[in-house]
Amino acid sequence: MNDNLPDEALDQLFRKARTYNAFLPTPVSDEQLRQIYELAKWGPTSANCQPMRLVFVKSAEAKARLAPHLSEGNRAKTLAAPVTAIVATDYAFYERLPQLFPHADAKSWFVGNPALIEVTAFRNATLQGAYVIMAARALGLDCGPMSGFDNAGVDAAFFPESQVKSNFLINIGYGDPSRDLFPRSPRLAFEEACAIV
Amino acid sequence: MNDNLPDEALDQLFRKARTYNAFLPTPVSDEQLRQIYELAKWGPTSANCQPMRLVFVKSAEAKARLAPHLSEGNRAKTLAAPVTAIVATDYAFYERLPQLFPHADAKSWFVGNPALIEVTAFRNATLQGAYVIMAARALGLDCGPMSGFDNAGVDAAFFPESQVKSNFLINIGYGDPSRDLFPRSPRLAFEEACAIV
User: B128 contacts in A (CB within 8 Å)?
Assistant: First the structure.
């Protein structure tokens, strides 16, 4: 049995973590990006299906490819962020189930069932995107996730002729609390969002 | 700037965390369920929309209401778990945006746009479900998430005549590594799932 993590860890992951719009100039190394995935990959997905694909947009060339597809309010901050992760969803994920879930014929659950493919791919890639946010924070990095962009444009620029579709974006770096950090917005109280029955 | 969390914390959250099928008899208190939400609520959602609703199924009566809607392979373990959280999605989430995102008229972005409502609700409630898993682990608890159940049946039993729909389930307790813990399934390598561009 595990104990509670120390208060400072709970603060870093949840209570004091913020969505940053501006980042310090401190760079994020390729090794750190790899470490994020090497943690996030362990998060659970249904039938271990792991439909998330991640493109870390880091070079000036790739940022320029992303730029026209960002919403006006997200463009400048995204171009300035050290890295922007495109969290994407592989809708052909079930092709890999013989490798990922070897103890059952899980691929057969999906073939010919587009509604189940759709909901499973989107739910589980999104779960994995949240694991990426939590992994980045656990590694001392800050995130700025967003869904304000032209998905079709990003798909054409980064995933042409493929079963992979963009889901949401995460700017990653070391947050700069002195710039563009808004007052924290309210959260629903336990009684508004939850019930114990 | 934050540091990496210590290795033991990274193990607890990611590297050694497992999806448990069997739990120790140790109970989970209502206060612990509240603590899970009080951490998870801080996770980011788009326009702070917080569409997740959580029903913690704990009593024998409520477990009996859930039972007929579980898939055969998930029934016995779920009935035996100390708590089963129904992670649900409130498709009328935008009604609360004047409270949750007071600095813009975010509600108007959604009214009359059912496709945007649908994708925003499902994506963000799912992100929040992942935050619940990570919060439970941060508090020393173990999870057994699953999507193998009859959503319509669970909705009729727990969310009648409402805009709230079940998304996925999470058994919560202290995992019993001596029972029904399968060998860990493989994860995609960085090169299979990720690119740095």
Answer: 130
Distance CA B168, CA A157 (A): 33
Which of A56, A101, A131 is the closest to B185 by Cβ? A101
Domain ranges of chain B: 19-175
Q: Is the dihedral of CA B171, B177, B178, B180 positive or negative?
A: positive
Q: Could you read off the pLDDT of A19-47 as tens digits, one per residue?
A: 999 999 999 999 999 999 999 999 999 99
Radius of gyration in angstroms for the set of CA atoms belonging to chain A, rounded to a whole number = 18
Cα–Cα distance measured from residue A158 to residue A156, given in angstroms and rounded to the nearest whole number: 6
Evaluate whether the domain defined by A19-175 bears CATH number 3.50.30.40: no
The pTM for the full model equals 0.98
Using the CB atoms, write b or e for A25-50: b if 16+ within 10 Å: eeebeeebbebbbbbbbbbbbbbbbb
Cross-chain residue pair B138–A188, CB shorter than 8 Å: no
Q: Which residues pair with B196 in a beta bridge?
A: A56
H helices of B11-49, in order, are 30-40
Cα–Cα distance, B177 to B114 (Å, whole number): 44
Q: What's the token pair of residue A64? A: 């320029």
What are B105-150's pLDDT values in tens digits?
999 999 999 999 999 999 999 999 999 999 999 999 999 999 999 9
Structure tokens at A101: 């879930």
Strands, sheet with A52-57, edge to edge from the N-terminal-most edge strand: A142-146, A164-173, A83-90, A52-57, B194-196
